[in-house]
Amino acid sequence: MSARCRDSEDGSRCDSADERDLPCCADGLASARLTIVVGDAHFSEEKRFLVQSCDYFRALYRSGMKECRQDEIHLKSLRARGFLVALAVLRGETPVLDADDIVEAIECAAFLQVAPLTKHLVHLVDSDNCLLMFHTAAIFGLMDLYRAAALFIRDAYADMEAEVEKSLPAELVSYVESLTPSSFVAVGAHVTCGVDETVHAASRTVCYLDEEANVWKVLTDLPPEASTSMAGVTVLDNKLYIVGGVHGLHRQVVDSCFCYCVATNTWSRISSPAQLRCNLSLVGSDGRLYAIGGEYDRKSMSSVEAYDVETGRWEFAAHLPRPAAGAACTKAMGRVFACLWKPMETTEIYEYVSRTDEWRLVTTLIRHQSYGHCMVGHRDKLYVVRNGPSDDFLRCLMDRYDLTSGQWSSLPGHFGNSKGSLFTAVVRGDSVLTLNRTATLEFAVDGETWKPRRQMKGFPRSGSVWTFLLRLPDARTLP
Prior knowledge:
The chain is α+β, with helices and mostly antiparallel strands and 479 residues long. 21% of the residues lie in helices and 37% in strands.
């Protein structure tokens, strides 16, 4: 398929041999290189790489202007450090940025419209840089980052209020305060419900914790056909998704999948994966759901399917290195990780790299008679919660993996007691929320430790529990 751009300034026309939506109007784009001058620095890059990666260069080579045929262009509005960061991100790297890097990277992302750089900046938002990210994104009009940083600040507002009011202009403070903070939400493990099972149906609820009143309240009822028993449950873009699960005495796999929209308080069906599965791990990232492993016909699977929320279609992704059911999975810095174990001593952590559609081994942890129950990500750290010695199953120990340094460390103490253990955990800002029937516990992630912060009412359900965060409507409209 070929395409033409409009006439260039000298009256000539530039033919393009594009691939799919690749625009260009420079002869020999496939092999040509372009020198970009930013300040005193010179960068030499392939034109095709720039056009495929960056809206600015894509628009430039659609324009038909004389720059289409130049071998060198000058970007006078940028600084070299920001452009260098942009190139690193476009090549698939995940650089850690200091304050100066952040400002120049935001400037570059806004000027050149580099979507992958904006996404990387969103993934880097934390309590140390959120105010800088928010204010700078407001200055340069980088709206995706502006909103992401504001939402982070809103969730951590109780800890940051004084600093926010001191550091930000009044209009930005007002915007943050207008946002809805995340609520801690939970649902128990329930099988499908028949029409006449009114008693059973009454307990099939998704609940949220009213932290001010310290009470669990009902958010919504599960659809009768939905099962959360051995299902995949996750949140993506403030919508709750349920995939798979089982029903009946023989644990038949459910073929109905559901989405709950908080904004409209409605449930809808979504298509099912090509391979029905239960006891799967479900992770949402960048507009896609990943159904990872699981079981069918009582056999563990290595297959992985990805659901595109925009198109409503499932497609197979790269298989796991080996079959896994109920694998501990999480996200950190926008990256998807799966924890696979070889009972009883070896735990391997793999990252799914969407750009190349592959599972890449990140690290291995060896602990005697132990395997991972739960994994959560906070900043550039992965926390693997595992059982203690075989004679003390409820004694939860924790190991931390630093993605930047590549080092493991063990957190002091243990996290299982009469009040519960960390078999389910959710990160909100610099806090981790976990619960059982007895108590909801909040820990502050502080350096080398998780420090108990406060205790709230436990979740009144037995069995497995799914926990997640949702931004709910105004509390006055909720039950």
